[in-house]
Amino acid sequence: MLLAQISDVHLNDARPEAAARLARTIDHVLRLPTLPDAVIVTGDIADHGTASEYAAARKLLARLPMPVRVMAGNHDDRAGLRAAFGVQGDHAMEPFIQFAWDLGTVRLLALDTTIPRENAGELCAQRLAWLEARLAEAPAQRTLVCLHHPPFATGLRVLDEIGLADVAALERVIARHAQVERMLAGHVHFTATARFAGTVAMTAPSTSMTIDHDLSRPNEVYMLAGAPPALLLHAWSDATSVLSSESVVGDRDKSVMIHDGRDWLAPTPAPPTQSPAKQG
Q1: Structurally, how many domains does the chain consist of?
Q2: Per-residue confidence at 246, pLDDT binned at 50, 70, 90?
Q3: pLDDT tens column, 113-152
Q4: What's the predicted TM-score (pTM) here?
Q5: Is residue 95 reached through a cis peptide bond, with omega within 30 degrees of 0 on the bond before it?
Q6: Would 263 be classed as within a structural domain?
Q7: What is the distance in angstroms between the CA of the first residue and the CA of the last residue of the chain?
Q8: Half-sphere exposure of 144 (CA within 13 A, CB side)
Q9: Residue 38 domain-assigned?
Q10: Which of 9, 10, 20, 30 is nearest to 247 (CA)?
Q11: The CATH number of the domain where 59 resides is what?
Q12: Which of 76, 70, 47 is nearest to 58 (CA)?
């Protein structure tokens, strides 16, 4: 089973490059050696939460042949997102966009960490009670808990100030349920991994723009990296735990076999590059 995680799309009527980058990401997903079985979009689908931004997102995401579920981020409008994409998953929780999604050997629980018209996030007692109830329903099923705001500090002050409030309350819930294999977030526009409540928490890169996460700079400095779109891939089987990796959008070299199932093979070297003729 393979799950693709796309995040922080930020479609913007006045900035067409965001849609172009999402289109490139979708092309990349469709060319992967193994087509994902499902796709989760972990928030900030629209930049301003307008109907036209959601219509554009829906049209682009409809190119994906596998099931797709979308979550709310701090730039999203819950009513607009629900109008465009409908109710997501099972155990939907109004007015939040919070749902469960059974993917067979793994269950996905999507949390709504948004506060209307605010950049920071929270999980109120009602949302945390929903999470507790869903986790108690299937204690033996591997579970991915998805949320837009990451449950850990990044070390960049400007991002941490708009992070998730009262992380300790979430930590207490997760610590009671050993089946949580991953916590998958977005919001910060780069990939990072941290321990959290006995499990692993990760942030996904953005399809729209990448934050340069360089802690050698003063943490007041906030810079964009000139990087291509990227996404996360999460794979699992009965024999393994969840395995996660970053997939950068772009051209790939042709795959070369180095093990045939029995023995290691010497890879075929690439043909030499012809040197340009000397001048003079």
Answers
A1: 1
A2: very high
A3: 999 999 999 999 999 999 999 999 999 999 999 999 999 9
A4: 0.89
A5: yes
A6: no
A7: 60
A8: 30
A9: yes
A10: 30
A11: 3.60.21.10
A12: 70
